[in-house]
Amino acid sequence: AQSVAQPEDQVNVAEGNPLTVKCTYSVSGNPYLFWYVQYPNRGLQFLLKYITGDNLVKGSYGFEAEFNKSQTSFYLKKPSALVSDSALYFCAVRDDDYKLSFGAGTTVTVRA
Amino acid sequence: DVKVTQSSRYLVKRTGEKVFLECVQDMDHENMFWYRQDPGLGLRLIYFSYDVKMKEKGDIPEGYSVSREKKERFSLILESASTNQTSMYLCASSLGFDTQYFGPGTRLTVL
Known about the structure:
The complex is a heterodimer.
Chain A: E1 3-5, E2 10-14, E3 19-21, E4 24-26, E5 32-38, E6 44-50, E7 56-58, E8 64-68, E9 73-78, E10 87-94, E11 101-102, E12 106-111
Parallel strand pairs in A: 2-12
Antiparallel strand pairs in A: 1-4, 3-9, 5-6, 5-10, 7-8, 8-9, 10-11, 10-12
Chain B: E1 4-6, E2 10-13, E3 19-25, E4 31-38, E5 42-49, E6 56-57, E7 65-70, E8 73-78, E9 87-94, E10 101-102, E11 106-110
Parallel strand pairs in B: 2-11
Antiparallel strand pairs in B: 1-3, 3-8, 4-5, 4-9, 5-6, 7-8, 9-10, 9-11
């Protein structure tokens, strides 16, 4: 069975500093990995995905993610965080199926 | 842009009531999904559908049913609402194995 873990419930960073959100995964086949963001009282918005190819994936709003197969990790990154990046972030994994498995989420707070 | 809409943003119902949550997508996606979101638990899949009139149970189907009579519409039904079904409900759709796109969510409170 597939699963993901987000080991940090909360991440706090100062505006302008780099932001990293951790995710580790477990799948039996090839991993298809996703990051979503959720602003208060809103649905999930797709940020980026890794299917195959380059280990560094670029996404929306200046976010990127680094895939590391040997560490079974998929870290979300942003070089310079903004206050408006404060939100709840979800990592998700899919293997050879339609279904996504989501992590519990990481709350990011960017202070001015 | 993909658009997924849900019939209500907020809903308050009483224990024992039958509740319908509606979801509509406008991108001709075959697959549609219903999740519930609870703090600390992430999103859990209730049901999904990969074609009209087809449905499959997700991880937590108990107490729920679904209906998909048209490709663009996927309904979640709570036959007899209970307080432990108070939650945020999210609908999503996808084309094949590709990215799932989510609606704005319905926050359901069962009193």
